[in-house]
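Hey, I was hoping to borrow your eyes for a little while. I'm sending you its amino acid sequence along with the backbone structure tokens. Take your time with it, there's no hurry, and the full record follows here.
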Amino acid sequence: MLAVNLASPLRNLRKVVERFGRGELGARSEVSRKDEIGELARSFNLMAGQITTLLSAERRLLQDVSHELRSPLARLGFAVELAKTSPDRETSLARIRQEADRLSHLVDELLELTRAEGDPTARNLEKVELAELLRDVVGSCTLEAEAQGCRLETDLEASAVVTGDFELLYRACDNVLRNSMRHAPGGTSISVKLRAKGGRATISIRDQGPGCHRMAPA
């Protein structure tokens, strides 16, 4: 009876480990004993949870890299093409350097976010002036918008300050604005508005294409 009492839960734990090794990341031991075997099962469950989190973060990183790098790469390509015909080479080269630096910074941010996936306290939270952030976003998109025959119009309130990650907020606004630029018909305008009321800031990005986009970071 003692052998059965020891061997049975160990066999069950071995089966769970084998399932986890085959890729069943949700496999967990249900052993609830209070002895060393129970401690072993709980240690496995903890380890399995940590491995699952790391694998999920890795998949998220690959998705983020493929998605987030599209906009700065498109801007960099546009800046290179503009430099070929622009009489002001210094300005064009400065823009290329700016986009290259932003690409490097973006990769660093994505890696940092992946490392902090399971620890929200590790994120870089700060006071963010949304009006300044939106001016930066609009400024980086202006030349590309003009090349596509669109106008960017801003209506920003200067008193909207939120606590958040500047880079995440910047990328969110940049992605939505560039999506509007892709769908806006030529000769139309895209409005970027910022409103603050009741302790809440609302960013509206609207185009005259088939849809409009709206975000409301608290």
